[in-house]
Automatic annotation (TrEMBL):
<dbReference type="Pfam" id="PF01547">
    <property type="entry name" value="SBP_bac_1"/>
</dbReference>
<dbReference type="InterPro" id="IPR050490">
    <property type="entry name" value="Bact_solute-bd_prot1"/>
</dbReference>
<dbReference type="InterPro" id="IPR019546">
    <property type="entry name" value="TAT_signal_bac_arc"/>
</dbReference>
<dbReference type="InterPro" id="IPR006311">
    <property type="entry name" value="TAT_signal"/>
</dbReference>
<dbReference type="InterPro" id="IPR006059">
    <property type="entry name" value="SBP"/>
</dbReference>
<protein>
    <recommendedName>
        <fullName>ABC transporter, substrate-binding protein (Cluster 1, maltose/g3p/polyamine/iron)</fullName>
    </recommendedName>
</protein>
């Protein structure tokens, strides 16, 4: 996922916390006119979330209470079995007033009628508009009919992170410069990973060029989507020539070229790819930018982020959750104020100080200022431009778990070298299309 599950408390701003983002669903219902003065409203709202850090939400609640001092935000942390327990609460008729939710659950909660539709709230509001969100994010937060069920205070995305010092030491151009010159291509990437992978005479890796990335993004970079629709697919595209080409290329880099790290622990002796990257042993790695806080302590080299290189298109995964409110909720107006807070001019700095990318312009400026405090990071301007131009979405249909399992199970023989790309692509296409035919999305 890349979902925002960790936070970073910045040194600026009074609130210093962050609300995570989420999508969810329901249908029907209209917003009543807002009460004359909700700042004097005395009530309690429950906010249910899965993130491991409670302090980020505590600080968000403090920021919210500066405007709504009599509204108590009760934080209900549910780090495991979040969705089964939320669904049980919905079924029992006692759901939390508000909650954090993964984008993959938008369609499920929409069909359950669990979350309040928000179009009318966006229309009446004077601080935020649905159109403030990127078009892709609006679709991710909406059902198949276009009704929107979530706010999105912040966004995350999967980018290629790279060790600029290793590129310079190898005499390679900065990927940022190549991207700005429209020359950050698959060929440029291949040249770099070959040169940046170091092995001893007996084949033991001492430095590896890159992590493998997300295979659907490489497909996107070759001009093809996984499905004909990420919200309500009717077919998959794994049998397309561009998809087979991308999968074949990835398998070659993994198995023949051996320039991808497949196990940081076994190959390099580090717990995971992030630790190996921070140690300077992996030159490029795909991470979600919501976890910048985990890279903020790098001090031995300069690093930056770029989109995935293109064969036809530059791409990033555009993700991050949203915030939703229960349809069975007696405090809808106050709940709306809470879930929209991070999208407002006064609330977005709370998100930015948590080192989370925000859409609101002033908050976005604050976010870039906070990134510049990470002294080892450079080229901070990449992020906003990439979100504007290159965002792609994972599958968000109602049967996403089942379809994702078909794909992951089907592609495993390719990564093991047991079957070629055309074979696994054909098998995935057959199985997934049969499932979709039997289970319309």
């Amino acid at each position: 996922m890349g979902i925002t599950r960790r936070g970073f408390i910045g040194g600026t701003g009074a609130a210093g916390g962050g609300l995570l983002a989420v999508a969810c669903g329901a249908d029907g219902g209209t917003a009543s006119p807002p009460a004359a003065d909700l700042t004097k409203k005395e009530t309690k709202l429950t906010f249910m979330f899965w993130a491991p850090r409670v302090d980020t939400f505590q600080n968000s609640a403090k920021g919210f209470n500066q405007r709504f001092p009599k509204v108590q935000i009760e934080l209900l942390q549910q780090p495991s079995d979040f969705h089964p327990k939320l669904q049980a609460m919905v079924a029992a008729g006692n759901p939390p007033e508000t909650w954090a939710l993964e984008l993959q659950k938008t369609q499920s909660y929409a069909r359950m009628g669990a979350a309040a539709p928000l179009s009318s709230y966006y229309k009446r509001d004077r601080q935020v508009r649905k159109e403030d969100l990127p078009e892709l994010k609006q679709k991710q937060l909406s059902d198949t009919k276009g009704e929107i069920y979530g706010t999105s205070p912040n966004m995350s995305g999967n980018f290629i992170h790279y060790n600029l010092d290793l590129f310079r030491q190898a005499g390679l151009p900065d990927p940022y410069d190549l991207w700005k010159q429209d020359r950050w291509t698959w060929d440029a990437f291949l040249t770099a990973v070959r040169q940046l992978t170091k092995r001893t005479a007996d084949g033991k890796a001492t430095q590896i060029g890159s992590s493998a990335g997300i295979h659907r993004l490489w497909m996107n970079a070759n001009g093809v989507e996984e499905f004909d629709s990420f919200v309500a697919p009717t077919k998959v595209n794994y049998d397309r020539p561009e998809a087979i080409d991308a999968l074949s290329w990835l398998a070659d880099l993994r198995l023949k070229q051996q320039v991808f790290v497949t196990s940081a622990q076994n190959e390099l002796g580090y717990r995971d790819t992030r630790d190996a990257f921070k140690a300077g042993k992996v030159a490029m790695a795909d991470f979600y930018i919501s976890e910048f806080s985990l890279l903020a302590d790098i001090s031995t080299f300069s690093w930056a982020v770029v989109p995935y290189p293109k064969k036809k298109d530059y791409v990033i995964d555009s993700s991050g959750s949203g915030l939703a409110m229960s349809k069975a909720n007696k405090e809808l107006d106050v709940s709306w104020e809470w879930i929209k807070f991070g999208m407002t001019r006064e609330g977005s700095p709370v998100e930015a100080d948590n080192l989370l990318f925000v859409v609101e312009p002033e908050g976005q400026k604050r976010y870039i200022e906070n990134l510049k405090k990470i002294t080892s990071m450079t080229h901070q301007d990449t992020i906003a431009e990439a979100f504007k131009k290159y965002g792609r979405s994972r599958l968000l249909s109602v049967n996403e778990p089942e379809l994702s399992k078909i794909i992951n199970d089907g592609i495993a023989p390719l990564w093991k070298g047991e079957q070629p790309a055309p074979t696994v692509a054909r098998d995935i296409t057959t199985r997934a299309n049969e499932f979709i035919k039997a289970n319309p999305q």
